[in-house]
Amino acid sequence: MLSPAGKLFRLQTLRLCVALAFGSPVTWLFAAEEIQFNTDVLDVNDRQNIDLSQFTRSGYIMPGNYTMAVHVNKNDLPEQPIVFVAPENNAKGSEVCLSPALVKQLGVKEKLESTLRWTHGGQCLDLRSLAGMEARGDLGSSSLYLNIPQAYLEYSSENWDPPSRWDDGIPGLLLDYNLNAQTQKNLKAGGNGYSLSGNGTAGGNLGAWRLRADWQASVNHQTGSGKASDKQFDWSRYYAYRAIPALRSRLTMGEDYLNSDLFDSLRFTGASLRSDDNMLPPNLRGYAPEISGVAKTNAKVVVSQQGRVLYETQVAAGPFLIQDINDAVSGELDVRVEEQDGSVQQFKMNTASIPYLTRPGRVRYKLAAGKPTEWGHHLRGPLFGTGEFSWGISNGWSLYGGAIGGGDYNALSLGLGRDLMLLGALSFDVTQSRARLPQEGVKSGGSYRLSYSKNFDEYDSQVTFAGYRFSQEDFMSMGEYLDVRYQGDRNGKSKEMYTLSFNKQFRDLGLSAYLNYSHQTYWDRAANDRYNLMLSRYFDLGEFKNLSLSLSAYRNRYNARNDDGMYLSLSVPWGSSGTISYNTTIDRNDNTHRVGYYDRVNEHDNYQLSAGAGRSGATLSGYYSHEGDMAQVNANASYQAGRYSAVGLAAQGGMTITAEGAALHRIATPGGTRLLLDTDGVPDVPVRGYGSTVATNRFGQAVVTDVNSYYRNKASIDLNALGDKVEATRSVVQATLTEGAIGYRRFAVIAGEKAMAIIKLADGSEPPFGATVMNARQQETGIVNDGGSVYLSGINPGEAMTVHWNGAAQCEVHLPMPLPADMLMNNLLLPCRPVGAQDTPRPDDQTGAAAHGH
């Protein structure tokens, strides 16, 4: 009797023999595009009973329907049905049929679509119509590999796909929630109370449309008050939206908030269409300058910043223009043009980033129309329309403006943005409003705004935003006009506003500083001021490493009264994952000191404990956070001597339901994009998006929500945490999803026991050498060796598997139920009956009994 190790060796012998038959030039001959094997190299008893048809033609796949993942150059498309057909001029051959729907996903340039030729009645692409294109199918990995010259395809980057590959996902329903519960006991006055609150989003997806409804609810109860519980529930917003890829825009209908860079926001019911920079490649989003020059020869252009290469490309001799520098890049750039003749050109380029600068030649716009809406879905005010734009005139200038009009209210805005290169970026705009009020007549006024941004690389500092705005007394936003007209009052007439955000790095000291200042004056009340200063430093002290010290100080001046405060904290790493901290808070009312300890239990759990003292008394508090597969759950408790004790609980999660399956899960953004992952019904498989790992539920499904819209997202199985009885033949999937989509991807997973078996046909013979065994999901679970022996994976009690040779399923075997306890030490004996024959094994059957001594 062979040991398990010997049986595994026989399986490896089979694969080695086939490899040798392929690889040795003296053991095969080409004939009619087929490979003829010299079976003398195979150590088998019956050389006449061999089926190597799947190996006889390089890359040959029998005509039929297959489910495959599609790989286009280095990019992946979703798993989908792929058809292989016989060529029109060769009934014995086989070629892949690329349907019009699949070709649309490839991202072929629009100007080439009219040149494509089709076969089989227009259902299959003639690959010769794209010179240099190659297609290869691989049944072992269930993949179709397409190599297409890049010149034929739309622009794509490492993490971004063109619109032709965007996936609107599958239809489904979703319900996301954020729930909070708290109970509090007043130790001083007696009595206690509790509160429950929640909010979230419910919705459904149908094609490209996203239907959403935001909700919020609360219950408050206080014992001893003599009042009933205060209960509220409201559907706060109903809306629908979809992407318009051709316009790189988003269309929203229903209740919305005005999204504007020029006018104040207001709630309205209607429709809006606005440019969505998320639909652009990362390097074309926002604003960044063009880099132009002239190359004397074919040259390499390198763009770097402080020695780090940000962009590199090759250009032909003559003028060149680089337009896809990432908008996240800011500050001074070094440009180096390395000519092929050995000469080098070098120059510097400065960038800036403020909302009113647009890339040269591009136009961004926002359009909206509707009626203003009050809380409670009541329309209030006239029908209005608004539109705004920003146009990149040249490499340094941007023109922007807009208008809003509705009944007795109208406003017009116009501005100009300028990239000052070395001096930063500046924009200036003027907005004029005109409102007719029943009691006060016509009110007209202007508002003037100046904005500035600059990086000072040589000083390691940055003015992230500096702004000034002055509004005349009779200037009104549309929201203020509605308040005056329908409520008769207008509080807080804005006059002047100064804002400044500045940060500075002191690298020699390891110190970073941030300052924020705002000053607001009004026509009808006292000025408001806010100062906020933050300092932070990381340092080492003796044996203690990576200590962190931070200081935050602020002043709020409101209604001629100052509110000053300061927060100081020190944290010291402790152990492998813990941190000990001390902090003190000083404000107008109290002065407290706290010590705390934070630690991570594992990837999903962490906790924090703290104790403190102040003028109000001693305090104790604790906090625990758990990132579960179905929800994020936080629990907390606090106690202050002589005043109160409180306990709180919070849960954040969601539920996604589709025809492909359903799952409870954590959420990132309520109502946002998500990816439903399927592991072929195998539960407890660890899958990972960009964040922590989650396990599939009892139905073999999980939802990950840490996905980005319009980015190429990848999800994978954590193979290191996979169980011993589970193996993944396809462990990585990817998807580029439109905003709000419910994506669906399936992994190829086989679960079950593994053991050696012997397959016998009805006449006592064995299937031919090289026959394959497939489970119900058409996954290959083994290859038949000499004498019908096969090493099977994915063995489950009572399951049926089919045995294939000569290109078709010839018979099926039924695994015993229950499985024999000693099958790992002895071969299973599996009769192979005609497909469809009734052969349900019973516990007292001898089917599947161990074949001793074979």
From TrEMBL:
Gene3D superfamilies linked: 2.60.40.2070, 2.60.40.3110, 3.10.20.410, Outer membrane usher protein FimD, plug domain
Record's subcellular location: Cell outer membrane
Signal peptide (residue range): 1-31
Keyword tags: Cell outer membrane, Fimbrium biogenesis, Membrane, Signal, Transmembrane, Transmembrane beta strand, Transport
UniProt main location, coarse: membrane
Membrane topology of this protein: Multi-pass membrane protein
Domain PapC-like C-terminal: 759-816
Record InterPro entries: Fimb_usher (IPR000015), Fimbrial_membr_usher_CS (IPR018030), FimD_plug_dom (IPR042186), PapC-like_C (IPR025949), PapC-like_C_sf (IPR043142), PapC_N (IPR025885), PapC_N_sf (IPR037224)
Ranges for domain PapC N-terminal: 36-181
Region (Disordered): 835-854
Keyword Transport part of the UniProt annotation: yes
One Pfam family recorded for the sequence: PapC_N
Family of this protein: Belongs to the fimbrial export usher family.
Name under which the protein is recorded: Outer membrane usher protein
